[in-house]
Structure formats: structure tokens, C-alpha cells
Write a structure and sequence with these properties.
Layout: E1 2-3, E2 15-18, E3 24-27, H1 29-35, H2 39-44, H3 49-52, E4 54-55, E5 75-80, E6 86-98, E7 103-111, H4 122-145, H5 151-173, E8 178-182, E9 188-192, H6 196-199, H7 209-212, H8 217-232, H9 237-240, E10 247-249, E11 255-264, E12 270-279, H10 281-305, H11 307-328, H12 337-353, H13 357-376, H14 379-407, H15 422-434, H16 439-450, E13 452-453, H17 455-458, H18 461-471, E14 480-482, E15 487-488, H19 490-499, H20 501-511, H21 515-520, E16 529-538, E17 541-550, H22 557-566, H23 576-580, H24 603-613, E18 617-623, E19 627-635, H25 643-648
Parallel strand pairs: 1-6, 14-16
Antiparallel strand pairs: 2-3, 2-7, 4-5, 5-6, 6-7, 8-9, 8-12, 10-11, 11-12, 13-15, 16-17, 17-19, 18-19
Helix pairs in contact: 11-12, 11-14, 12-13, 13-14, 15-16, 18-20, 19-24, 20-24
Length: 649
Amino acid sequence: MKIQYSLFDTLLEPVFVLNAEQRVIYCNETAAIVCGLSVRKITRGSMKFLDLFTFSEPIEGLDKLIHICDPTPYKEVTFQTPQGGEGKVQITLQPVFDSMGDKNWIVFVRDVTLEERLQKKYRAELEQKEDVIKDLEDAKVQLENYSKNLEKMVADRTAELSRLNQMMTALLDSLNQGFLIFNEQGKVLEVTSKACEHTIEGRPQGQNIWDVLKLPANKVDGFQKWMKTVFMEMLPFEDLAPLGPASYPHSEGNRISLEYFPLRNAEGKMDGVVLVASDITKLVEAQEQAVRDRSYANLIINMVQNKNQIGRFVRESESLLSELKSGLKASWENADDESLFRQLHTLKGGAALFSIQDMTEYCHKAETLLSEFKESRNAEQYKKLQDETLFIESSFHKFLIKSEDILGKKALSQERQLEIPLSKLQNTVEKLQSLPQGNTAAQLLLNDLMMESIGSFFESYNDVAQKVAEKQDKQLNPVIFKNAELKVLPEIYSTLFATFVHSFRNSVDHGIEAPTVRQEQGKPAAGTIIVQFNLLRKHAIDWLQIRIDDDGAGVNAKVIREKLTSKGFDVSKQSDEEVIQHIFDSQFSTREQVTETSGRGVGMDAIKHAAEHLGGAVHVRSEYGKGTTLIVEVPYMTDLVPAKKLQAA
């Protein structure tokens, strides 16, 4: 059979045509891309096929082309090119006669690697297929007009067209992508590829395209309107194509991506839409695995860089998990929603801080289930919440195992590692204090051996704020810490300090504006957060003051007032400063939608709850448009049993 090699120009798979001397007399653009050369250089330079590739195994029949009379089976090999290219392909040889009657051999190369090299010519190759379809239609018309006296000619021509159709079908079927065409009425035409059986689970000829794509009933009307807009060409096709369904819901869970290309007639009018369905399951799985790998790498880095903070997180999380399990043992009628919200939100914040992805996701899902339970309050929803906490505990124990492998068991001990127990140190301090002039020595012992710089508890929150800023395309200067060397006892304040993760996240999420907005308001593009630690003397008691200032948008008292009014609270007699204190109310949030960063209304409540537990208080000041100040004051305690000072406070 004679053939025009230009038919292969539109194919997305590499095709070479060799003469008896193995020299390349034709190759399509895709083949040239694989070789890393131009079509002109390959064909006009009479390059031999084996000059273009080095294969891992010999190609059967390539050295004896003249003996090949039938297509050879596909052989899978790896290759390298002189230009440095490499990959894995399947190759078959097939004899063919060109338009001059000369015998040559077609080399079909099926690329089984990722299709990155093919996408550049994708649209142009598909658009060129309209010429082949038009030629077939013209040939059919001419055959019908022939006279009965030319029956033999008609038969010969029909046979030739049949062979051409078979070859085109074979070429389409050799590709790994599903191809189909649908018209203005949404009917799928006869031209489809065999790969449709895998990608869209069947040959769809004659069906409605919305049925083929398994669109839900409530989305069919929207799809039909999109299709009508496409064929009317009210907007450029390139702008409309991304609005079509982007994926196919495969019954086996395969990830099938959908792409659309215009098919135009000779006058340039839309004749149909070419749909290409590609199985990208392995690519998506590789991307998801890469995300998990990066998360695990960040976890290891956090463990190494923040060993002390990891230990504190473990101790605090074990305490929170114990409280959570204890709280969930209550009947669903007596569940304490607010406590459960605080525990889950604080657990999630700590897990996110140290890149414990699974635990973060389970906590977020549990928060959602708790919100749903709060709305419905039934036993079934409560059981779902209880079950989800088991996943949180399981992921935490997996994290502990990984942490012990990296840091060792001592790093995760329930007590800070010193040469002697802290209780003995405390006894020593008390004995020193009972001696004449022993207070000075006792204080030195406290400072040197038992107390830690308060800044060490807050340094990691700079990373928290920077991560939130990065996710939201905001700019943030490094957090400034003042008087961070102030010494505190971790055993007393660790729970309070753990809740401050909410404050830093809120400062960026609710406070710091986008760079363009800040510049329009005369502010620097990057926001600033300043943390000050102070010791105050009030009412004959020493107080620890933690003050966090940001230069963001401030708190909008009007929005909070409207939110409270809509919930049935009368705040008409309250000043703006009194109104904004409601941000510490349990489950109060100005956000309408829940995100990983905010929307639960639990974060500021957790800070208030922890401060009040120590006998302290919280307060917020804000100037709308200029910034916000959070002030937390708690008694400053320097002994391990703070009950007396709590009572005095």
C-alpha cells in the first residue's frame, strides 16, 4: 500500500521512516523532539537511525530491514541520545511503500515515559486532524458520484480508503490517551481511540458527552450552557476550555484529566471539540508522596532544631490527649463542647507547628465533627467524634516512635533532664530560703538550674507566623522579642505559652494586610510583630506581662458588634473597647468559613482560659487600621507548687 508520510505529522508519538540503508528519510516533529534535533537536520543529513539512539538491547530486524515483510512485535527498551536525552520506549518496524512506490520501513516509537516532550505541539497536531477528516468526507462524496460503469474503480478506491481508515485507527489505538470528538449537539462522533476503554471506561460513539463524563444531574445544564458558548465562540476558546470539566470520576479511583481542543472546518468555524483523556494517576501519586516526604523532612528538621520545644510539645500533648479522652467519656448529653474545642485546637496548633501532617489533619477533621455535633447533638455524631480521636492518638504515638528513633527516649521524658530531680532542687531552694540571708543563694539556684529564658518558648512562633504569611502571600518581618532573657519556670507556664500559637496565627491571618493594601495605606509592605516580656509589681505581687503588638489592620469593633447583635447579644451600651474584648468569648469568630488558620473561635478563648487558670487576665487594645495589642498578665511564680500564690492572686 502506498502512503503519504505527511499523515504522520499530526501524531503525538514519534515516527521514523527508514530506507534499506537504515537512513532516516522522514520523521515527524515529535520524533525530532525526542532526538533533540530538528527534522531538517535529521532528514537532509541522511542520518542513520542508530546514530540517533543508543538502545539498551538490539532491535530485532533493524540490521536486516529488507527481510522484514510484516510488522514486528513491540519491543520495550531504554535509550540515550548523543544530546543527553534518555527514556524508555516501545518500538515496532513495519514495511510500507511511499507515494513513488519505493519500499521503506516505518519505525513506530511509543514513549512510555511522562509526556512532557509532547505537550508543546499538542494543540497544533489536533487541529491538523480536521484536514484528514475533510479529505475522507470529500472522498466519500466523489465515490457516490461515480457512474455504474466505474464500479471497479469505486471498489478499488473504497478498499484503499478502508485500508487508510484502518491505519488511522491503528495509529490512534497505539496511543495511551483517550481521544473523542463531540459536536454542537453534544453527540460523540465515530472517531475515538481504544484508550477510551481505560480512561473513560468505554467506547462512547453516539452517546451524549455529559453522559460519557458521568456529570451529576444538577451540573448538566451548566455544562450545556458552556458547550453552547464554546460553539458560538462568544469568547476565545483558550479562555473557555479551562471552564469545562477537568477530570473524569473513574470507578476504580484512577486520576483522569480532561483537556479540550477546537476542531475547525476550512472556513475556520467550530466543527467540534476534541476531548483528550489522560491517566495521570502515577503523576498525582508521585506529587502526593513528594508532599508527604517534604512534611516528614520538615518534621525531622524541627526535631533537631527544636529539641526542647519538642519535649514540651510531647508532654503538653499527652496531657491534652488525656483530658480529651476523659472529656469524651461523658455521655453525649453532658459533653463539654468548649473544653473539647480548646483541647483539639491547641493540639492541632502544636502539631502544625512541628509539621506533623497526619495529626494536624485528624485534629481538623475532629473539629469539624465537633461543630456538626454541636449543631445536631445526637449519639451517632458523638460516636463519630470519639472514633476520630482514636486516629489523633494513633498518629501522636507514631510521632513519638519517630521522635524516639531520632532524639532518643530521654529527650521525650516527662521531666526536664537534669543531674538531679527538680523536686530535690526545690527542697534545696526552700531550705536555703529558711536560712538567714539565704534568699539570694536560693534565687541564684533557681535562675541557674531550674528556670529557663522565656524567649526559648516563643522563638518557634516566628516560624508559625512566617508560614501563615507565606500561605496568604503576605510579607512579614522576623518577629521581634524584647527582654526575652527573662527567666521562668516551665512547669508553671508551659500550658499558657502553648496557647500563644493562636495569637501569632491570628496576628497574620486577621491583622497583617496584603503588601499592596499596606502600601496604599502608607505602611511598609512587610508587617511587624513585637513581643515584650515584662515584670510588674502590683498589689504587693510580682506579675509576668506578655505583650504582643502588630501593625496590621486592627480589630473592627463595628463588625464584632454586628456579629454579637446577630447572635442575640445586647451590646448597645458597651464601648468599642468593651466590645472588642468579646474576641476572647468561646467559639466567637468573625470568619464565616472555617480554614486551617481560623474560623473556629477557639484560639483566643484558649489563651484566656489558660491565663485565668493561673490567676491572671487578658486584655486587647486596638486602633482600627493601625494595629492591635494583646496583653496577658499572670502572677510571676518561682516555685514548683504555685497553689499559695494562685490563691493570693
